[in-house]
Amino acid sequence: xxxxxxxxxxxxxxxxxxxxxxxxxxxxxxxxxxxxxxxxxxxxxxxxxxxxxxxxxxxxxxxxxxxxxxxxxxxxxxxxxxxxxxxxxxxxxxxxxxxxxxxxxxxxxxxxxxxxxxxxxxxxxxxxxxxxxxxxxxxxxxxxxxxxxxxxxxxxxxxxxxxxxxxxxxxxxxxxxxxxxxxxxxxxxxxxxxxxxxxxxxxxxxxxxxxxxxxxxxxxxxxxxxxxxxxxxxxxxxxxxxxxxxxxxxxxxxxxxxxxxxxxxxxxxxxxxxxxxxxxxxxxxxxxxxx
Length: 291
Hints:
Layout: E1 5-9, E2 12-19, E3 22-26, H1 27-30, H2 40-44, H3 47-60, H4 66-75, H5 85-92, E4 97-100, E5 106-110, H6 111-121, H7 123-169, H8 178-197, H9 201-207, H10 209-212, H11 224-242, H12 247-268, H13 280-290
Helix pairs in contact: 3-4, 6-7, 7-8, 7-11, 8-11, 8-12, 11-12, 12-13
């Protein structure tokens, strides 16, 4: 599980964690809002609960064990029926409920199931839970968007540094027509694109025409990790241009740097990328090439 976040619902702190790229909410925390001596197992005994969980798993879990589920459902609601979260997960291969020990321990439910669990506590609690969860996601979305905008601006600034190096070392300004300047700039920009994304800007537009039709570019669709590396590559390229390093050598060095830096970011920056990028497949292939 990734680092815990927290929301406050009717003065009760409730943990939210990322598990398999989905938000899971602590129903161990949530049950504190229900008056009386109740446990998650009491909710699991209910036949309606079991049927709801079965439907959710059938939609979201291709490895769900329907045979065991049918056995459990046939006993649900009986006075003798009792099952724990761990037993439920072990018998049915369920993924919607997880029981964790140690740090951030307790029972967590996928947000869809947690909202349903909120109804068992009270309709009001469920509504407040949804409201606070949405507030958390809005805050996270705004934070990540600001971060992405900053990285994009940084990359744009470094692109200017790179074009200054091109003007200084690659373009004979007194002799070269204006149309040739544009060609050389694009060629150098695509050298960086190829090293990082494995595609030129034109190839990207041809591969993702629907996205490109919305006036998006290959760099607009990069995630924050890619933009960090992009910024670094443009700086390196500017330095190597001034040093007179040839294009083939610069491409090979940038590609090696991109692979190393992406691998480092993937290892040390645990937070997943928040912007879905059509470049991800190419980035994955780039990392695989290193192995």
